[in-house]
Structures are given as C-alpha cells and as structure tokens.
Amino acid sequence: MLTNVVEVSEEVDASVEDIFDSAIDTIFPDETRNCHGYVSSQITYKSRRFGDVRLELADPRSEDGRKLFAHYVWNAALLIAELIGGTEEGSASNGVDWNVDGERIIELGAGTGLAGLIAAQAGANKVVISDFPSPEILGAIKENVKKNISKEVQKRVTVQAHQWGVLEDQFSKAHPNDFTRVLSADCLWMTGEHLNLARSMLHFLAHSDSARVWVTAGFHTGRSIVAQFFDVAVDAGLAIEKIWEQDVHGNERVWTKQPASKTENATELKRWLVIAILRRNSDQ
C-alpha cells in the first residue's frame, strides 16, 4: 500500500490535534490519508532501493508555507518517488519506463523535494528541485538534500526558486528547453495557476522527441479541477501521451473527467491518483 512507505512519528511535544490527525486512518479504517505531516512530526520515506529518506517540512506557521501546503508530504509525491526509484531497473507502470539514468530533470512545485531527491539517487545526470521563492520552503528542501544525498551526488543537484509562469528571471532565461524530464507531483489544485504551470513545463522541456513531463496528482480538490489542468495544458501546447488512474493499493483504471462511479465521493477519491505522461504537441 502506498501509504505504508511513509512513516510519521510525533515528537514529545505533539499536540492533541496532531496526534488525532495522525491516527485518523486507524480510527476510521475506510479513510485514506492523502497527506502526511504537521509541525511537530518527523517524516521518513522508506525507499526500498535507497533506504530511509528523512524529510524536513516547511514551517506551516509562515504565510507561504500555509498557502502552498508545503508542510505536508502528499501521496502524489510518494507515488512518483516509487515509480522513479522503486527498483534498480526502474518501474514500468502502464508500459512507461521510469528509469531516469542520465536524464536532466527539473521538479516543479517540489514541496519537500522528494521526487528530485530520488531522481538524483537513481542516476539522473542533473536535477533542479524548484519551488516558490519562499525562504522557508527552499530552506527545507536544501536541508533535505544535505541530509539524504551524498556529497558526490549533491554536485548534480540544485535547489532553485521558481514561480510558475515567470520566465524572464535569470534562471529561466539560462535554461530554456534544458530538461528531458519535468516532474510535477500534486501541483494541480490551484486553478488560477494552471496556465502558469503549463507555461513553465513547456519552457523547461527539451525539444528532443523523448523529452516528457511526468505528472501525478490526487483528487483532494475534486476531479473537475484536475481535469481542467489537462485541458489548459493541451491548449498551451502540450499533448497527453498517456493518462490513467491508480489507487494506493496499485490498482489501475481508465482516466475519466467524470466521476468514475455513481458512488464516487470524497472518501473514495482520496484513494485514487492520476498519472499522466505529457509531451510537446508536434503540430505546434
């Protein structure tokens, strides 16, 4: 089960609310946790290939941390980490080769930077872990790089401020079409940022035929919001090569913009995520 690869432990000063929150899936067994962490918790991603990855969370008491929900590890980040780094050969979910050996990677809206951390350890030639220009968020990512990656691998990793759609800054102008893989884990929940996110994806994505954007996202803000992003991305110049849904148990089903069943509700949606492989639209 996907949620079994993350361990949340409370510090001695954990509040009653924090302890209750961490036990929700025990108290309510039908409820699936789709995010993990709070201010007093210690987060460990238990990689089968690389061992324990201990994650620092952004301080949610800061305004940026609260607005961007960077003080959680989301299931979409766990899923893409499992796909990229689950085995030495890489996974092959739905016929997709998730091997990143030798690839140039940028992670957008990284949060804790988990996907980028795993990609670096899995052999990516270059990894940029980016998020909103918030000192708290970027500081937590830098700490995660320092704690979890060897000094030799750190030479291939950069933590970078990037606001989606802002493409005239020094970093963006220096790296157009520079990355063979663009990663996005649970970045689709803000409808007002859909176009900016798509623009950043296109800006950084290499023009090579094999360059791809890998997207994972949960449905915690609703299926229609997730579907809206893909419509915006296609209009912006991306094409959907593959898209499907997978639940926390590894079951797969066809992607649909409409409810997958007559009984679909918030509890069921927490168990499911969307996985999409995007490329440049060759007609544009």
Secondary structure category: alpha/beta
For the record, give the distance between the C-alpha atoms at the N and C termini, rounded to a whole number: 40 Å
Principal-axis shape: globular
Mean pLDDT: 88
The H-and-E topology, N to C, reads as EHHEEEHEHEHEHHEHEHEHEEHE
Which labels suit this protein?
284 residues, 25% strand, three-stranded antiparallel sheet, eight-stranded mixed sheet, alpha/beta, 31% helix
Structural write-up:
With 284 residues, the chain is α/β, with parallel strands linked by helices. It is built from eleven helices and 13 strands. It has helices at residues 16-22, 24-27, 63-68, 75-85, 114-121, 135-148, 151-154, 170-174, 194-204, 223-236, 266-269, and strands spanning 6-10, 35-36, 41-47, 51-55, 73-74, 104-108, 126-131, 157-161, 181-185, 212-218, 238-247, 252-254, 272-280. The chain has an eight-stranded mixed β-sheet, with helices on both faces. It has a three-stranded antiparallel β-sheet with strand order 1-3-4. Strand 6 (104-108), helix 5 (114-121) and strand 7 (126-131) form a beta-alpha-beta unit. Helix 9 packs across helix 10. The longest helix has 14 residues, at 135-148.
The gist of it:
With 284 residues, this protein is α/β, with parallel strands linked by helices. The protein has helices at 16-22, 24-27, 63-68, 75-85, 114-121, 135-148, 151-154, 170-174, 194-204, 223-236, 266-269; strands at residues 6-10, 35-36, 41-47, 51-55, 73-74, 104-108, 126-131, 157-161, 181-185, 212-218, 238-247, 252-254, 272-280. Helix 4 packs parallel to helix 5 (114-121) and helix 9 packs across helix 10.
